[in-house]
């Protein structure tokens, strides 16, 4: 998988150099090119924004640097071009999984009050939202998308970080986890987990997953 991110805050993406994704990037399991939109501005001061037509507060990102940057990084339109926005289709694990099957994803991050609609109309394939709340820009949403999609790429997760037995894999929330010590502040780990009976452990985990999902997210069970 190849990701290209277009942003006016490229430094923010250093967060992806940490932990599991940092290791995967180092080991070339996927690539991430972070492109500064400002570098494509033809303005003498490298401006990337202007006041909104029709008036109102805030600034709008102009078409020229965005359209030039997108066409420079994806000249033959072979990438899936995504704009992170609260107006987009809500990201869920099914969308994550289907995006992970693509070869190349371009993500446009907006800032300020918005992006000139013509840049979106001309160049963007799909708008995706990470949830019904408003952030100051699309950078954190882009990192959420990259993080969630990367987990499905071969070799990104270690063998102990399996992608199969997890929340949402069968539309259930995860069962509770425990590790040593067996008793902490008087709270004991459920006996079955210490029994060594793998079939009983699997049964208990499935029951817990169903119980927790019923209680916290009945919508996931269609209830
Ligand atoms: C997006 C601010 C574009 C300014 C944002 C511009 C968001 C979300 C979000 C903020 N993106 N899911 N929620 N973006 O809040 O995806 Cl120009």
Give an overview in words.
- 29% of the residues lie in helices and 19% in strands.
- The protein folds into two domains: 149 residues, 3-Layer(aba) Sandwich (Alpha/beta knot), CATH 3.40.1280.10; 57 residues, Orthogonal Bundle (Trp Operon Repressor, Chain A).
- By secondary structure, it is an alpha/beta fold.
- The chain contains six helices and ten strands; from the N terminus they run βαβββαβαββαβαββα.
- It has a five-stranded parallel β-sheet.
- The protein starts with a strand and ends in a 7-residue tail after the last helix.
- The site of 4-amino-N-(4-chlorobenzyl)-1,2,5-oxadiazole-3-carboxamide (4FM) has 18 residues, from β5 and β7.
Task: Kindly summarize this structure in a few lines.
The protein contains 6 helices and 10 strands; from the N terminus they run βαβββαβαββαβαββα.
Count of separate structural domains: 2
* CATH domain topology of the largest domain: Alpha/beta knot
Question: How much of the polypeptide forms β-strand, as a percent range?
Answer: 15-25%
Give the names of the bound compounds: 4-amino-N-(4-chlorobenzyl)-1,2,5-oxadiazole-3-carboxamide
H/E order of the elements?
A: EHEEEHEHEEHEHEEH
- Overall pLDDT: 96
How would a textbook summarize the main sheet?
5 strands, parallel
Count every beta strand, where a strand is a DSSP E run of 2 or more residues: 10
What does the radius of gyration come to? Answer: 22 Å
Strand order of the largest sheet: 2-1-6-5-8
The low-pLDDT segments are: none
Subunit arrangement of the protein: single chain
The assigned CATH architecture of the largest domain is: 3-Layer(aba) Sandwich
> Structural class of the secondary structure composition?
alpha/beta
CATH class identity of the largest domain: Alpha Beta
Q: What would the principal axes of the Cα set say about the shape?
A: elongated
Separation, N- and C-terminal Cα atoms: 36 Å
Q: List the total number of helices.
A: 6
**Percent of residues in helices:** 25-40%
Report the CATH superfamily of the largest domain.
Answer: SPOUT methyltransferase, trefoil knot domain
């Amino acid at each position: 998988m190849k990701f290209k991110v277009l942003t006016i805050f490229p430094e923010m993406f250093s967060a992806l150099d940490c932990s599991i994704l940092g290791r995967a990037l180092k080991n070339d399991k996927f690539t991430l090119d972070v492109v500064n939109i400002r570098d494509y501005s033809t303005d003498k001061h490298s401006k990337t924004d202007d006041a909104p037509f029709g008036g109102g507060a805030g600034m709008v990102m102009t078409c020229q640097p965005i359209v030039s940057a997108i066409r420079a990084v994806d000249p033959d339109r072979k990438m899936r071009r995504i704009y992170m926005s609260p107006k987009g289709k809500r990201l869920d694990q099914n969308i994550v999984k289907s995006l992970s099957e693509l070869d190349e994803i371009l993500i446009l991050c907006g800032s300020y009050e918005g992006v000139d609609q013509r840049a979106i109309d001309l160049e963007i394939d799909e708008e995706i939202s990470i949830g019904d709340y408003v952030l100051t820009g699309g950078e954190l949403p882009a990192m959420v998308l990259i993080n969630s999609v990367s987990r499905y790429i071969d070799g990104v997760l270690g063998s102990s970080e399996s992608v199969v037995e997890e929340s949402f894999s069968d539309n259930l929330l995860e069962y509770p986890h425990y590790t040593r010590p067996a008793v902490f502040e008087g709270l004991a780990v459920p006996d079955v987990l210490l029994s060594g009976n793998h079939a009983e452990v699997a049964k208990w985990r499935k029951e817990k997953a169903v119980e927790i999902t019923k209680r916290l997210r009945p919508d996931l069970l269609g209830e």
